[in-house]
Amino acid sequence: MSKEKSPEENAVDQYTANVLQNGISRRSFMSRAAVGAAAAGLGAMSLTGLTGSKAEAASVAECGEFAKSSDGGATLDFMPKPELIAEKEIASTKTFDVVVVGAGASGVPAALSAAENGAKVAVLQKQAIVVSQGNTGSGIDLAKSDKAGIEALVNRLNADSAHRCNPALVRSWAYNSGEAISWVIDRAKKGGATVVDQGTGPQHGIRGITEYPLNFVTSYFGPKPYTAGDGMRALAKTAEKAGVKFFFNMPAQQLVQEKSGRVVGVISKGRDGKYYRFMAKKGVILAAGDYQNNEAMSNYFIPDAKNFVRKQMDRTGDGFTMAFWAGGVIEPLGHTKMLHDFDAGPAAMCDMPFLAVNRKGERFVNETVAMSLMNNYLRDAENAGHYSQVFDADYMTGAKGWPGKLYSPEELKNYMPEDPSPKKGVFPSQTNTYKADTLEELAVKLECDPKTFVASVKRYNELCKAGKDDDFGKPANRLLPVEKAPFYGIHRRMRVSAITSGMLVNANHQALNADGQPINGLFIVGNMGGGFYGGVDYPLTVFGLSLGRCYTFGYLTGKHVAKL
Amino acid sequence: MNTNIKNKLVFALALTLLLGGLFAGGAVAADGVQLDQFHASQGVACADCHGADNQREAVPMIKCLECHDTKAVAAATADLQPTNPHDNRHFSTETDCNYCHHQHQKSENFCTPCHLRFEFVVP
């Protein structure tokens, strides 16, 4: 690396260089030497390790009908080359400054932000409505934070991503998110949303990260059943007032690209089967979400997620295919996933290290493992993300002071489908907490084998009595026995909320091609955007980081593209 | 397709859905007949959905909309418990019919396994 570059810039180059070398692109199966030579313009980037077999891949013909794996060995038939659409098949052509693909937590802010900065904007949405999930969206309140504290958090988020993310993008969130979240709250309110800024209150996960002031702006569109979906629908109303045109049931099919490589528009297919063209004078912003519902694409990029149920629908990775064929680079295999269950029982008790058993009823882990990581022990087809937290009548005293917040037996009723009490602030079809007078009865309710379950509890109680966890090494002060009726169980189901890896972008969220050069006119935000994460799982250090990043990058990119 | 058939279809669908609602607690479907047979009995020909050349192409949802009004369907099931499957937080009234209502195989409840206890009988 060049001596003139700061450590920060070198770190950025590390991320980008790795994605260029190992990611999936139209050129990744061509000669590595050619890519390396072209990438030399980026700086002293070395693409070493070229092997004979890789060099041979250069002989593969330029882009056939399907994409290829990074070594050229595998045909990725889930990413077919878009078919040429004849001019006569285009029912109409409309021209805008900015065309946004996807009306979700990143697309709607991007569209409004672009419109507020003077652009004429179209949003193309696959579904009939604006769709977004989750609730909390977080940013840093710069006025109430110390830079050393912010940098400590950036360091922690880099660590959460196993240091495989692009620190420049993490900083882009860190230093712009407070402004962006406040803006989303204000504009969503103007569209009729019920939304509050919860400030730093919900951010339990940041304790111990820094001794310097670190405060948050935290948007909350709840309580359930209200979600960020309602928030984004309200924000879209504000956007419509600002002149943004929404086109629903209008899934984008392919990008319109000039010979120079510049992306100048999008072709969508209406419900009537006709094609509609939307030209973008300044740029196209892809905010089309992840690919969790595209089985072949998921199994290729994130095989770990094979057996988990999907929480979303229609996330078929259309945006990935479009960006790929426009020359973009998909991050290397092993994408970051997000699996959690805040609905079965209280979210605030999800990380409490009670006895945990898998679907068979076996203890399977040191329960101090966070819920956000638990899926890794439950990847097989039988467990498929299911486990249960188990505790007894004395949990309120026994678990006092554990991470999170304890809910009393009375409060737990809200999460019990068998309890007749009216449910408030939960999704009734997702609650999954049970109470029983015997362990056998509880096992049945938790859908475990009673014999196995009772044996697991017996063994666990022995370890608790000894004060020493010979099986999994859990600390003595977390060994709470399960002895006194009534017994409780929270049956959590880890399902895929999102896949949060995506396309290679620079700090302006502009897509880069296989040479590391920006693709003119193409910007990528939201879960489709790469570089913000890098770990095996989405971290829960900052509650609402995911929506916070989506809002922030949408806000920034809309503004940026409008000003081009 | 003429208006008479269309009206009959809307009525039949609404009736089936209402019966489905009544029987939602039980495990038996109100009607074991597959929808292709039902459609055929109402005078719908293969070509009406699959095109005149009968190429058996995948049928887009818009074909369903030629006879079925999504808003009317949603209104017909507005009181279905525990929730109205035809007006939901994912797609509003525009859920792709084919997610649940299959023609040439048994229909399925697409709400489960995500939504526990959303026990619908799907015609």
Structure described in brief:
Chain A is α+β, with helices and mostly antiparallel strands and 564 residues long. Helices cover 28% and strands 18% of the residues of chain A.
Low-confidence stretches of chain B: 1-30
CATH homologous superfamily heading of the domain at 87-128 and 226-337 and 500-537 and 556-562 in chain A: FAD/NAD(P)-binding domain
Helix amount of chain B? 25-40%
Q: How many beta-strand elements of chain A?
A: 19
Characteristics:
heterodimer, A: 564 residues, alpha+beta, FAD/NAD(P)-binding domain, Flavocytochrome C3, Chain A, domain 1, 8-stranded mixed β-sheet, 4-stranded antiparallel β-sheet, 15 helices, 19 strands, B: 123 residues, mainly alpha, 5 helices, 36% helix, disordered N terminus
Notes on the structure:
The complex is a heterodimer of chains A (564) and B (123). By secondary structure, chain A is an alpha+beta fold. Among the domains of chain A are: 87-128 and 226-337 and 500-537 and 556-562, 3-Layer(bba) Sandwich (FAD/NAD(P)-binding domain); 342-493, Alpha-Beta Complex (Flavocytochrome C3, Chain A, domain 1). Chain A is 28% helix and 18% strand. In chain A, strand 10 and strand 11 form a beta hairpin. The longest helix of chain A has 24 residues, at 167-190. In chain A, 52% of the residues are buried. Residues 31-63 of chain A have low confidence and may be disordered. Chain B has 123 residues and is an all-alpha fold. Chain B has one domain. Helices cover 36% and strands 0% of the residues of chain B. Chain B contains five helices and no strands. The relative contact order of chain B is 0.19. Chain A binds chain B through residues 127-129, 131, 225, 227, 229, 249, 271-273, 309, 311, 313, 417, 427-432, 495, and chain B through 60-62, 65, 82-83, 89-94, 99, 111, 113-118.
